[in-house]
Specification:
The complex is a heterodimer of chains A (about 100) and B (about 260). Chain A contains four helices and no strands. Chain A has about 100 residues and is mainly alpha-helical. In chain B, strands 1-2 form a two-stranded antiparallel ribbon. Chain B has a two-stranded antiparallel sheet with strand order 3-4. In chain B, strands 5-6 form a two-stranded antiparallel ribbon. The chains are: A mainly alpha (about 100), B mainly alpha (about 260). Chains A and B meet through helix 2 and helix 4 of A and helix 3 of B.
């Protein structure tokens, strides 16, 4: 691997780590709700999403979970349950699509 | 002759199951009690009776999805662990029962407060009561009189009621529900019956997706996407799994065989 490729890889990893660690700051107090709505708005079309789109949505769900975990108890209980429903559906459709691809 | 034999086999299997389960027969609920859920997580610790939740009262106005997906109520009794504080903050029951929300022109009564006076205690008793309420029963029978009839459950054919426009269900709550694109209409399909002589099942996927969305059933209740991927038996269904999560408890009971085993022979 060349030095440039190594540097690019490190930068990409650092970027991903920042995105993973900083969702709270990035979304603000109410911003995460808009992100929740946008992320879970596609459950009706889950079967028409690509593997890449489903993976992205699952990444957004994982980031949201971290923010919701820091909220007060009642809100946390409601939104973790709601997030679980949409995340599980995406994960389930993703698994189905991967199996489909694998069997072709 | 074959049919008589089949019926006898089913009855014998049913009674054997009851015997195996300890010999006690479940009491058939009265029409207005069918679908009622007693919620008793914290009430008794707080010195008030548990909540008896009437599904029919809510089902006549809202889709299952609104409460079980958008508000976050679990699918089994007492799984949600609702506290008065949650309701008072506007979650769970308090999402609608906040003294401000309306259903049509009617204001929906306020739910719990974390502290309450002696006068306010009567408000608590609207839900926290194990006593029979003749006014509620009367309200049920008045509602029933306007609905298409069904032999089992609470005597209402809910599916037909919606089809003929006797019910118009709310599926979105402003400020709570996620705005989604329209759902592709799912085709109904047939499932092969395991017993000879028993008609195949016609599964109304379209109706179920409108009422429940996708995420309420998949993957928590049904793991397979491909038709036939989830293998299940009537024993599991009567045990409260798969279709039995709703049917028998809230949706029409599974003893109403012909509602599902409906494919013409």
């Amino acid at each position: 691997m060349t030095t440039l490729a190594r540097k690019l890889r490190s930068a990409a990893l650092a970027g991903a780590l920042c995105l993973w660690l900083l969702p709270e700051g990035a979304w603000g107090e109410e911003g995460w709700r808009a992100e929740f709505d946008a992320t879970c708005a596609q459950t009706n079309d889950a079967m028409s999403l690509s593997v890449q789109e489903l993976n992205q949505l699952l990444g957004r769900c994982a980031a949201l979970e971290k923010v919701i975990d820091t909220q007060e108890e009642s809100l946390r209980k409601v939104y973790l349950k709601r997030l679980q429903l949409c995340r599980n559906l995406y994960a389930y459709v993703l698994e189905y699509k991967k199996n489909e691809q694998g069997s072709k | 002759m074959k049919r008589i034999f089949l019926v006898c086999t089913i009855l014998l299997a049913g009674s054997s199951l009851l015997w195996a389960a300890g010999g006690s027969k479940k009491k058939k609920p009265l029409p207005y009690d069918f679908g009622s859920v007693t919620i008793s997580n914290y009430s008794q610790q707080a010195g008030i009776p548990p909540v008896v939740f009437d599904h029919w009262v809510h089902r006549k106005s809202y889709t299952c999805r609104v409460c079980h997906v958008d508000i976050g109520f679990g699918m089994t009794a007492n799984s949600t662990k609702i506290r008065a504080a949650d309701n008072a903050k506007g979650y769970f029951c308090g999402t609608c029962h906040n003294g401000k929300s309306q259903l049509g022109k009617a204001k929906i009564f306020d739910s719990c407060a974390t502290t309450f006076s002696r006068e306010e205690y009567n408000r608590c008793l609207k839900c926290h009561s194990l006593e029979r309420d003749p006014a509620k029963e009367e309200a049920f029978f008045q509602f029933l009189a306007k609905m298409p009839k069904e032999t089992f459950g609470n005597g209402i054919n809910w599916e037909k009621a919606e089809e003929i426009g006797a019910l118009k269900l709310v599926d979105q709550l402003e400020g709570v529900s996620v705005k989604k694109s329209g759902m592709k209409i799912q085709g109904d399909f047939a499932l092969k019956s395991k017993v000879d002589g028993m008609p195949d099942i016609i599964f109304s996927h379209a109706k179920h997706t409108v009422w429940n969305g996708c995420e309420l059933c998949h993957p928590d209740i049904f793991v397979g996407i491909k038709k036939g991927a989830s293998k299940y038996s009537m024993i599991e269904l009567f045990d409260g799994k798969y279709c039995g999560v709703c049917h028998d408890k809230v949706a029409f009971p599974q003893t109403d065989c012909k509602r599902c085993h409906a494919k013409p022979v």
